[in-house]
Amino acid sequence: MSDPRISLDKILPHAYPFLLIDRVIEIDDGKRVVCLKHVSCDEDMFKGYFPHDPVLPPLYIVEAMAQASGLLLGTERSGGAFLSMMKDVTFHKTVRPGDRLIMTSSLFHAFSPLFVFHASASVDDNPVAEAEITLALTKNE
């Protein structure tokens, strides 16, 4: 999976409006991924969350980092994965409409069915959030 022109819908179970990745910028064969989310003022999440001073809800940032991490598991692990644990989650600044959110995730430890990632998010090279994210593979029924 070294081609950044990945079809997200073939790997992630998410769809609009909850697919929080617009594009894969870089992916390194299951080790590291860099993804982009254009944060638009038209997104539903801004309608009720601080509507007069819109910011991206922090849990959406964590979910975007988890989705980026899930891309590293690839299509060969059919059956999918789910967010199992978040650890050491830190938020550094807010994300606003018009921002380009960059998510980076690296595989830290694998003990199937659990996979631990170090993930971060940034805007204009400024740190926004970071977390240790654990994804658990689901069994193919």
Brief rundown of the structure:
The protein has 141 residues and is mainly beta. 13% of the residues lie in helices and 41% in strands. The longest helix is centred in the middle third of the chain and has 14 residues.
Low-confidence stretches: none
Radius of gyration: 15 Å
SSE succession:
HEEHEEEE
How many DSSP E strands? 6
Please, could you describe this protein's structure?
The chain is mainly beta. The chain has one domain (8-137): Thiol Ester Dehydrase, Chain A (Roll), CATH 3.10.129. The chain has two helices and six strands; from the N terminus they run αββαββββ. The chain has helices at 8-11, 58-71, and strands spanning 23-28, 32-38, 81-91, 100-111, 114-123, 126-137. A six-stranded antiparallel β-sheet has the order 1-2-4-5-6-3, with helices on one face. A hairpin with a 2-residue loop joins strand 5 (114-123) and strand 6. The two termini are 25 Å apart.
Map the helices and strands.
Blueprint: H1 8-11, E1 23-28, E2 32-38, H2 58-71, E3 81-91, E4 100-111, E5 114-123, E6 126-137
Antiparallel strand pairs: 1-2, 2-4, 3-6, 4-5, 5-6
Q: What descriptive keywords fit this protein?
A:
six-stranded antiparallel β-sheet; 141 residues; Thiol Ester Dehydrase, Chain A
